[in-house]
Amino acid sequence: MMERLKDDTAPLKDESSRIHARLAELEKLFDEWAERLDKRMIDEDQFRRHNTTLLAEKHKLETRLSEIDAKLSEGRRLAVSLTEIQEVLKDVPAVWETLQFEEKREIVRLLVEKVAVHPDKVELHFYHLPVQELQTRRSRRSYQRKAKEETSTGSVNTRNQ
Question: Among 124, 126, 104, 127, which residue's Cα sits nearest to residue 115?
């Protein structure tokens, strides 16, 4: 189940790397401006104005980095939770038989986002998982009937089923 979940952390990790790189650049800029001030190439007012701009950018980047770290941490907790859920789900067949109808309905309601019924298939849309297609009995009979007709007429079905 876990391998089917999409990894949404890559963009966050990329953004985190870019922010770390920019923070390193800002540190160099701080040093350069301090050196300019020490060498009296700029006055304190110029230094203060530029330093304020750099500090504001640094604060903004550090805030965003904290948000990214929190999201990445949530993703790690989710992975642990999914592993725990997989272990619990191994017992579902035995437990399912002991559940009342209302409990079963609530579990299905919490897991299934949407059910789409088509003439040849049923699609189950689970929350946060890929769509699952189920072949219906009717579709299986119609495919079997078509296959028999094609065999008897000599035509070949090239459509993927």
Answer: 124
- Determine contact, residues 49/17, Cβ cutoff 8 Å: no
Say which residue, 17 or 83, is predicted with more confidence.
17
Q: How far apart are CA 126 and CA 104, in angstroms?
A: 16
- Whether 156 has a pLDDT exceeding 70, the answer reads no
Three-state SS for 124?
strand
pLDDT of 4 = 42
The pTM (predicted TM-score) of the whole model is: 0.45
Distances in whole angstroms, Cα of residue 91 to Cα of each of 43, 64, 94: 73, 41, 6
Question: Is the sign of the CA dihedral 35, 40, 41, 45 positive or negative?
Answer: positive
Tokens of 106: 């609530």
Contact 116, 123 (CB under 8 A): yes
Strand order from edge to edge, sheet including 112-117? 112-117, 121-126, 132-135
